[in-house]
Amino acid sequence: MIYTVTLNPSIDQHITLNKLVKDDTLRAQSVEKYPGGKGINVCRALKILGRPAKAFTFMGGYAGYILRDLLQKEEVVFDSTDVIGETRMNVILTDLSDRTQTRISMPGPEVQKFTLDILLEKIHKAEPRPSFWVLGGSLPPSRPVDTFRWIIQSLNDRGERCVLDADADVLEEGIKAKPFMIKPNEFEIERLAGRPLPGLDDKAKVAVEICRKGVEVVAVTLDGRGALVVTKDASYRAEAPRVEVKSKVGAGDSFIAGFLNALRSGKDIPEASREGVAAGTAAVIKEGTSLFTREDFERVRGLVQVEQMENCPAVMTKP
Question: Which end of the chain is more exposed for a tag (fewer CB within 10 A), N or C?
């Protein structure tokens, strides 16, 4: 079993346009709604892969009922805690004229401390205990940037492994709790480093430094080109096959699902990297936020190339 925590879930409304033009009235070619939020997407992807998973999240207002209905239709197992205010509704605009995609992300409702405590009590009492916890996404307005940090610390105290997928100050604070794994994309690891990281070796060196702080796995997704996966022992490059990118929404979440599903099945880091990249790549060839199909995952998995980076420094223990 794998559990996820999404503190600021969403309904992702995907709108397809022939051409995005400012200051004009446009007609949508199609409109679709999907449940959203990093942890929720991980659960959706794990269901496709046949791995039991459960999402812990907040829901509020009329949009909360819609989110609940969307999850039930996809048969995603979840435990929701009610909040005052409306669950956010994000908008993803796909411009068919140039295949660009614009995402408008809403802030979401405020979550009071006592409401967060209710969710945390559920997390700590959940049975059976999971193989992994996945925590990620943005925080609700007014929640401090160290929120994921102390949730991870509380789960670490129970001997449980956490995966963090966040950005900026939230990611920097979360690393202090020494999660089992983090999954920044290449832009997020640059923000974490505070400088440009143009080459793969540059990214790998930063990942090594993060491993020295106690994180066991740093997986950097490379915007459709695969992933760099660094552990305390070795670094790997998993190269994705070239495909037509139709949507990037949910690709990183699909990577996490594929990676953790492989680890849970007893596979090693290189094979987990292969399956993570396969799931992420299978997601980008699907329109909108519908993630991927099992058939596409199986087809792409055989095309992912994984190699160890010989020149990347391993994490050395200082005498």
Answer: C
